[in-house]
Automatic annotation (TrEMBL):
CDD domains hit by this protein: CGS_like
Superkingdom, taxonomy of origin: Bacteria
Upper lineage: Bacteria, Bacillati, Bacillota, Bacilli, Bacillales
Stored Pfam families: Cys_Met_Meta_PP
GO molecular function, one term: transaminase activity
Protein name: Aminotransferase class I/II-fold pyridoxal phosphate-dependent enzyme
Key words, A-Z: Aminotransferase, Pyridoxal phosphate, Transferase
SUPFAM superfamilies in the cross-refs: PLP-dependent transferases (SSF53383)
Species this protein is from: Brevibacillus ruminantium
Essential cofactor(s): pyridoxal 5'-phosphate
Length: 402
């Protein structure tokens, strides 16, 4: 089938999936096999040596996962993709593929807490150094580049403050210095942003979030050049045992069919929620790239085809107010994840970004009053009514204090 002419919503359903030649089944079968039989010893040796394409052992790949990888590569417009066991397996795997002992990486400042933790605790044990730079400022990034810098690691929009980074200009700068650019595209998905088309070298995903979209799978993807992906499959994912499994790949293939529908709804509802919160007297600050008050609103409009489903905001009154607000919610659930059908809220300073020391958290704008809300697919009026009833007691406190 010619997949090139398909638009995104069609590609999400058809790419990499054809009816079964034997039974005509429209939905692909799950192949749980770990081992694959060869006609002779030479054929087996050729596959393991990489001289011939083929699947030989479940830790290095599987036909169900291969169909999903082919789809993700097309969606991101990359040469190849690798499905792994989690978003963190994708992030650590991609970083380890391009870094070795004695190398230095520059990372954007407010980054997912797990990525921060990997770069500041595990990577240094293997001789890899990191500096965090304000990547909204190209001069600051250029200043942070050292002779041993090999990678620029970006996340845009960032978790949790939704900072937008200019992938195109940062990639130009990084490439002029010989660096590899890795972008975490979890918040956007290829439906809303395609970093490889903007000049990045590698895209990583937590497929646990929007790509699967139903809160029942932990998975990750790395997308990039075929040679780099082959290296990661054999020498990183394979050696560290970070492989995805066939059942989860099947669930992601199923979830992806509705990615377009889901993302459009997430974006529409998030924008309504952001506008509601922006006008609310109990809210100190709001972060949503779709608002004209967002500092990188113009860049967001150029770089992204939708503003995403995450809204972050600071309530007046700090940690105490933030916690009593989320405790008062009845529909939205307090949870560490995002990108699910359910509206999920969390307090980054004490939950997802707890591993970042308090002084650094403040410097990254992750204050004690900050809340991250992942807009679900419920009726947006119900979500807003829930927010309203939980914010009401804060308004009285704010008034009493002023
Ligand atoms: C932006 C981002 N990247 C990566 C991850 C890690 O994903 P996983 O939990 O699938 O390892 C997360 C998790 O919340 C995330 O928010």
């Amino acid at each position: 089938m010619d997949t090139k002419k398909w638009r995104m919503d069609t590609s999400l359903i058809h790419t990499g999936q054809e009816p079964c030649q034997k039974t005509g089944a429209v939905v692909s079968a799950v192949v749980p096999a770990v081992a694959y039989a060869f006609t002779d010893a030479e054929a087996a040796a050729a596959v393991v040596a990489g001289e011939k394409e083929g699947i030989y052992y479940g830790r290095y790949g599987n036909p169900t996962i291969a169909a999903l990888e082919a789809k993700i590569a097309v969606l991101e417009n990359g040469e190849a993709a690798l499905g792994v066991s989690s978003g963190m397996a994708a992030i650590s795997g991609a970083l380890l593929a391009f870094l070795k002992q004695g190398d230095h990486v520059i990372c954007t400042r407010d980054v997912y807490g797990g990525s921060y933790k990997f770069l500041t605790s595990l990577a240094p044990r293997y001789g890899i150094a990191v500096d965090f730079a304000d990547c909204t400022d190209l001069a600051a990034v250029e200043q942070a580049i050292r002779p041993d810098t090999r990678v620029l690691y970006l996340e845009t929009p960032s978790n949790p403050c939704l900072t937008i980074l200019d992938i195109e200009r940062l990639s130009e700068l990084a490439h002029a210095h010989g660096l590899t650019v890795i972008v975490d595209n979890t918040f956007m998905t290829p439906y809303l942003q395609k970093p490889l088309e903007l000049g990045a070298d590698v895209v990583v995903h937590s497929a646990t979030k929007y790509l699967n979209g139903h809160g029942d799978v932990i998975a990750g993807f790395i997308v990039g050049k075929r040679e780099a992906i082959q290296f990661m499959r054999k020498h990183i994912m394979g050696d560290l045992g970070q492989n995805l499994n066939a059942w989860d790949a099947f669930l992601i293939l199923r979830g992806l069919k509705t990615l377009g529908l889901r993302m459009r709804q997430h974006c529409q509802s998030a924008e309504q929620i952001a506008r509601y919160l922006e006008a609310h007297p109990a809210i100190e600050r709001i972060y949503y790239p779709g608002l004209s008050s967002h500092p990188q609103h113009e860049l967001a409009k150029r770089q992204m085809s939708g503003m995403g489903g995450i809204v972050s905001f600071e309530v007046k009154g700090g940690a105490q107010a933030a916690k009593s607000f989320i405790n008062a919610l009845r529909l939205a659930m307090i949870s560490f994840s995002l990108g699910d059908p359910e509206t999920l809220v969390q307090h980054p300073a004490s939950m997802t970004h707890f591993s970042i020391p308090p002084e650094e958290r403040e410097a990254f704008q992750i204050t004690e009053g900050l809340i991250r809300l992942s807009t679900g697919l419920e009726d947006v009026s119900d979500i807003i009514e829930d927010l309203e009833q939980a914010l009401r007691p804060l308004v009285s406190t704010v008034k009493a204090g002023s």
